Every structure is written in C-alpha cells, then in structure tokens.
Amino acid sequence: MSPLKISWKSIWSKPLSSALNIMLIAFGTGILTILLLASTQISEKLDNNSKDIDLVVGAKGSPLQLILSSIYYIDFPTGNIPLKDAQELARNPFVKRAVPLAQGDNYKGIRIVGTDTNFVSVYKLKTSTGKFWAQDFEVTIGASVAGNEHLKVGDTFFGAHGLTGSTDVHKTHAYKVVGILSPQGNVTDNLILTNIASVWKMHDDHEQEEAEEHDKNHDHHDSAIEKGGHKGAGHGSARPDEIGLNEGREITALLIQYRSPMSVVMFPRMVNQMTTLQAASPAMESTRLFSLIGVGIDTLQWFAVLIMLIAAISVFVNLYNSLKERSYDLAIMRTLGASRGQLFQIVIFEGILLTLAGTLFGIGLGHLALQFIGAYQESSQARLTGFILLNDEIYLFVAGLAIGIFAAIIPALQAYSANISKILSKN
Amino acid sequence: MIAIKSVAHSYNDATRISFNDWEINNGDQWLLLGESGSGKTTLLHILTGILKPAEGEVMINGTAVYSLSAKKLDQFRGRNIGIIFQRPHLIKSLTITENLVMAQSFAGLPEDLNRVNEVLESLGIAAKKNVYPNELSQGQLQRVSIARAVINKPALLIADEPTSSLDDKNAAAVLELLLQQSGLNQATMIVATHDKRVKDAFTNTYELR
User: What is the value of pTM for the model shown?
Assistant: First the structure.
C-alpha cells in the first residue's frame, strides 16, 4: 500500500469537503480555460481573416466599423464610395491588388458579397464542388453556408434586402449556386460570393418595382447599392478594367494589398487626404479591438485567479484541520514503520490529488462551457468552439499542480517533523 | 535478547527518570508495572524506538536501536516491534484488510494477503476483513489492533494498557489473545499496565518506582 493510495483513500473518506475543494479549483480553472480558449480563438480569427489584406478603403466614418464590416462582415458598412475613386486607387503604383466589395443583401442572415476574381486570389479560395461565379446571378457559397442551409450546386434562392432580416425579398432575380468553396477556416466559409453587377442589377430592378414600398420601410443603414444609380445594365463581370464603364456607380469598400512595405507609410495618408474616402488598417484596428476586449478579459482573469487563490487556501485549511485530527493516525503509521518522508508524501499527495482533480475538471468544464456558449452565439462568423486543445493549457495544469503543492507544503512539513512520542502519549 | 543499559531520560531538563537495567530473553512474557507518572509510557516509547533516551542504549536482538539512521530505525521498528495501544486506533479511511496490508508495506515487506487472512482468522475476526473500522465494536477493534501488531511476526510485542478500557469479559479475552499471539508468533511480550486483572497471568515483573 503506497502513500499515494493512502492519500487517495483519505480523500474518499471525506467526500464533502474534498468535493468542495475540487469544485472551487474547477471553477477557477474553468474560467481561466474559457478565457484562454476564447481569447486565442478571437485573436486567431482576427488574424486569419485579415492576414493578406493590408488596407481597407471605404467611406468616412469609424475605421473600426469599416474593418468590422469589410473584413469580418459583422458590422454595417460605413457607407459607399464612388466606383470611380476606387478604380483610381486600384491603379495606384503602391497597390499590388485591389478587391472591390459590394454588400447590401443577405440570404437568411448570410451576407451576399459582390466582388471579383481578385477576392479569390487574396483569400486563396478553392472550390470543393462546382466552379466560381461567372455570369450574373451565379453565386459560389462558403462551406458553412452550404452545410447550414443545405444548399448544393444547382439550387436557387432569393436574396433579401439589408444585411439581416428577410422581410424584403428581391423576387425579380434568383441566385443560382454554381459552386461551393472548400472550408477555409475564415469568414469566407460564411459568405455568398457573386459578381458586383449582380448586386447592382438586383437593386436596379428592385428599385423600379418596389420604389414606393421602399420609401416607406427603408429604415436600414445606407445600403451602397441603392444609390448606385440606374445606368449600365448588363455587365457580366466586374473586372477592374470593365468597371470603368460604370460611371456614377458605387461600391462598399476596397480591400488593398500593397506592392511594397514602403506603401504602409505613404498610401494610407494619401487616401485619407482625398475628401470622400478613408483608409483603415486591419492589423491596427484588430489590435485596438482586441485591447478593448482585453480589459474585460483581464478583469475576468483576475477574478479567476482570486477564485484559485481561495481554492488554494481552502485546500490548505482542509489539510491543516484534518492533520490535527490525523496526527494520531500519522503517528501510528510511524510506529508501523513509516518514515518521515512517507508521511510527507501522504499529505502532499493529498493536496496534489485534490487540485489535480479540480484542474482536470475545470479544464473539461471550460471546454464544455465554451462549446455551449458557441452554440448560442448569434454571429456565425465569430463562432467559438470548445472542442480544441491548446498547448497553453499545460500551464493551467502546471498552475493546478503548483497550487496543490503550495497548499499542502505546510501541513506536509508538519507531518514530517511531528514528534510522535508526544502525540502518542497525549492520548 | 532485549536489553536496556543505564537508560535515563529527562523532560525539560527538570525531571529526570533513570531506569534499572533490564534483560529479557526471547519468548519471555513480562509485566511492566508502575503508577501513572512513573515513566511507564516513556520507557515503552524508548523501547519501541520512537523516543531517543538522553543516556544509555537499547539492544534488540543484537541491534543497538538508537545507533540506526532515522530511516533504518523506522523500518526496524516496522519489522521487529509490534505495538498495541490502550485504545485501538485504526486508519478510518482504510478497511481492516487495508490497515493490515499498510502495516506490511510500511515495514518494507511484500503485501501478503494469506498472512492477513491467517492472522485475522486466528483472532476470530476474518468475517470483518472488508469492513471499515467505524463498523466494529471496541472489542473487535482491539483484536484488529492486535492483528496489526503481529502481522509482521515481530520479535517484540509491546502492549500499553491493552485492557484498561475494556470490561472484565473483554479484558480477559484480550489478555488471552495477547498471550496466545505472542506464543504463536514466538514474540517476546511486554505488557505495561496497572490493571490488577492482568497481573496473575505473568510471572516476570519489572516494576518502576
């Protein structure tokens, strides 16, 4: 019978106080696990979605809003920019690649984004079935869209006006699914991609047919496309060279890849000095966003650390008190031949077993809780999952172990140095 | 042979107790008599190797007990000395069998369930081997503590007031078992007591004054 087994049996002999200790530690570790998983996933998502985009150009307004709407597709766009200005920027020598975006419609809350083939190259998209959109009203859908909405190649659907809600459906044209993207692990999994002309045309007809109705209930944001004018019908695709024909048209934003690192300094300033446009850097805004969330995360982190500390004290008090009751037990063990070292082990193992069980429970609990939170999240773009393991979790494990040792070391030393003759003669 | 030579101990430098030399032949059964406060417990602790005397030495079968290293002494005690206390004290979180197995492994001996069964049977409590101590009566617990003391076939069996908290019937039974077990395991036995019910069973007496 090893000291470890004696510790184990001792824990089981007082299930209530052991359970209380384990719960306290599990709670603290659980919160830390959730924070670790969530903040890692959020920053990963922020990075993943913006890693190949150096700059976003859109209408003046909040730069963060511009980034959120054009990189992460979670906020409303700041407004529209004239296509002519966008094209001018796209031809700038600093720019390697420019991706136009036209937003304004959704299908069951999934954004329909009008863009061109540059989008495909920037996000390095591949189709798993079918092909990329070519004709008007052809769409290629993200992997999650196909899964969640049960859409497959050949299916058709009607888009609805606005970025959320499906009350105002464009019934004149149906979109036709021609391809499904392979899973990318970023926002494109949750987008419906088409060409810009489709988005414009949808609204040309839409406006003609439903103009009056629109005036009544058009209380959404500024949808770019509404103001896009009514000229230039019948364009198959929206390649930059062709966009030139669309005088007076507007798009939502322009994603830009720089030609050289030098552009970082020069280009945003140049854009911001042009009267109608604003440039925002995804990297900078993501960092700013994360630092805003960070305050909350820090607070919760301290809260969790506090709970862990209370747990450590509780384990300590538990061991210390039980040691008083058990000092006679331990003395008896000495008379049976146990060494001081073995008594030390018995007490310290008890602390470590308690905190280790708590830590394991806590990590498991944290994962489950985050999965649960993820399942109830509204925005599918930023959905969190509990079913991933991080290397950093090893630190939680180590912290649990350290707390166990910290809480048990004083009682263990007392057991080590106890004068058994004195204890035995007292009873 | 067990012997103490010119052993003396002092508490807080104030009270000093010196003990007469004592030689015990293997297999002898001795009674240790003395009023409370006469140093009975002190002498027992010195004999069992848990209290190092200020002076003198303790020899058990040729080993000078207090010249052993701390760890060696613990193991020596586990293998060679069995102790029965006034009140049976078993580890509450372990079953009877586990309590006995623990005594085997603390002494550095292999776990031997046959031996556990054998001892429990000889004490008539084999039926209780898988229950926890709090389910047993005081008399049954004292039997288990005798079982624990003899499980490793010790050379020396020491009982400190083993009968004083028991009624006549149980006291007689326990005394009977102690004598029987010391014979069965060929252990030298020392029973410390002031219980008059015990005295008649012993011929050898060491008296503290």
Answer: 0.74
